[in-house]
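Listing S7. Sequence submitted for prediction.
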Amino acid sequence: MVTLDCNFVSDTPTLPASSSSPAIPAPESAFAAVKAIGEHLQHQVIGQQQLIERMLIALLCGGHVLVEGAPGLAKTRAIKALSEVVEGDFHRIQFTPDLLPSDVTGTEIYRPEDGSFSFQQGPIFHNVILADEINRAPAKVQSALLEAMAERQVTFGRQTFALPDFFMVMATQNPIEQEGTYTLPEAQLDRFLLHTVVDYPNREAEQAILQLVREENAGEVSTSQDIAPTLVSQAQIFQARQELLALHMAEPVERYLVEIVMASRNPPANLAPLIELGASPRGTIGLDLCARARAWLAERDFVTPEDVQAIAHDVLRHRIICSFEADAQGLGSDHIIDQLLAQVPVP
């Protein structure tokens, strides 16, 4: 693997380059391609380095991301910035209470010239999907994403339509409003590889955001029109996915990963009253993939226990269901994961 100075989790705010800079040529290696994506995201999204890293991990693992946070934290901006530098089509679906399942998957159109019906594909057939405020849509619409996210296909009547090989859903939800929202069912939550929670930026990043917005309004920074539309090809992303699967994971690390998931199903005595249901095998698979992706981004050819620990909250947060007693005590799944990581022996 090539050696590059790549740090996707830096806390230093970065401002975009001048609009006079030329479009960046497509990098040759898979690692250089993903590094270019990370650099572009850091130029466009300030103060959300963890979100950027999680998006890159999901991209490498071929999974979907649920992003939860208050309004105005660059959730939508981040996925738009990603779509600008990755080969493929982008579509945003604004979820509302009056949305219909056919508005997502598509519907049949009657053709009067020959009296036939033909299926008109919906926005789900694009490569990168932004499901904005997914918890504002009722259960029928949310379930319309279920087959697409899990099986990479859409069934309409007797026909089944395959989705693109490169397919990624990033959904956002607003946690501060409960009126007019619909809680996502656990079965659909499990289809998301990661559940990432974003918080407010720090003081330095906030000041850098002000400068960025002023320069954007003045036309002094690069816009999506100034960036090469196919900076990173899908072939390079698929190559990166194969490379991370080849990373070495020692048996003790693999055992440690499994023990964390098993402890969520058979928890220690002090945690048993707090857990209604533990993580599924999909959580084990997701933890393995994401730990590999984090090691790959760090330019290592092996996975460490620290990689597992760093990504455990985002992989397991939505897969561990808290009991009524935990809710009564105001304890969420993050607290449970903290305790599991503290009690499971590290190799």
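Caption to Listing S7: primary sequence and predicted structure tokens for the chain studied. The radius of gyration is 21 Å. Residues 266 and 272 are 7 Å apart (CA to CA).
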